[in-house]
Input
Amino acid sequence: MFLPKLRELKEALTSFFSKPYTSKYPFTKEPYEPIKEFKGKPKFDEENCVGCGTCAQVCPAEAIEIIDSVEKKLRILKINYSHCIYCGQCEEHCITEKGIKLSNDYITAVFSSDKDADTMQIDKELLICQNCGSIIGCADHLDWIIDRLGPKAYGNPNLIAHLQKRFADIPESKIKDKLRREDYYKLFCPKCRHQIVIKDVFG
Ligand code: SF4
Ligand code: SF4
Output
């Protein structure tokens, strides 16, 4: 019983005169540098994210929200850090492999009055079917597919219609009184494009 007490006393004295292992967060002089492999807040890379939504689909905590506005032709991708469990699934499954990355930012405390500080969002242009107004996808996503397909992109009417914009600022042509064969190379959803073909063949 006597010996352990001496050991504890020695430890107490050593600790008293040695530097603390903890830091006085957030009043430290030098901020803590996490290790390279640290899994902190996931962050979008606006340049490399194409707005496909895969990360939101694979997120087990449903921390990534996709908010589409057909009127504004806009997709908002939003990470809610209060839901995130830092698992890294979003980064692992990102189709561009660079659109979202877990950073080494470990500071998750925010004031309850500043809800935006607990989120990160980016905006992407949405492409809408010129006939029915349904969502086709993000403009950046189509660009990404075109770049991967190379000349094969000319096999898809939507990709051709989108590709043409790289070469000239072509004004959007309107559909006349009804769908016609000439509309085939406008931006259409698969259902409306199907209608053009059926109407062209069967009247
Ligand atoms: S790290 Fe995991 S929980 Fe957090 S946003 Fe990515 S997939 Fe969702
Ligand atoms: S490109 Fe990557 S980060 Fe962007 S929406 Fe798709 S999966 Fe998410």
Remarks:
- The first strand starts at residue 42 and ends at 44.
- DSSP finds six helices and six strands in the chain.
